[in-house]
Amino acid sequence: MSKKIGFIWKEKGKKYENEVDRELFKNLMEAVKASFDWDNEISTKILSYIPNLECIEIDKDRNEQRDVPFIVCKMQNNTKEMIEIRNCHQIMWSILNKYTT
Question: For residue 6, which of 40, 72, 78, 99 sits 20 to 30 Å off, Cα-Cα?
């Protein structure tokens, strides 16, 4: 298992890539889950994927046109899981945007 998780995003027609330390990202998602115990479905899903997560893909151009934006979690076995994240989840989006700017 790689020590890094990739972030791939498309914005204004261009493709970008970044990486984040797997353990740091896991710790961050655990903190989010603990801090928002009344609404932590997204962080819980991401945490369940982290052991096998290869990368998170975000199409910012497409998400701007959707009522409910989403991310795609690509696993090491080449399967993909989509997680819809409503715009009202500003903390989660700000975390994801930190890695995709």
Answer: 40
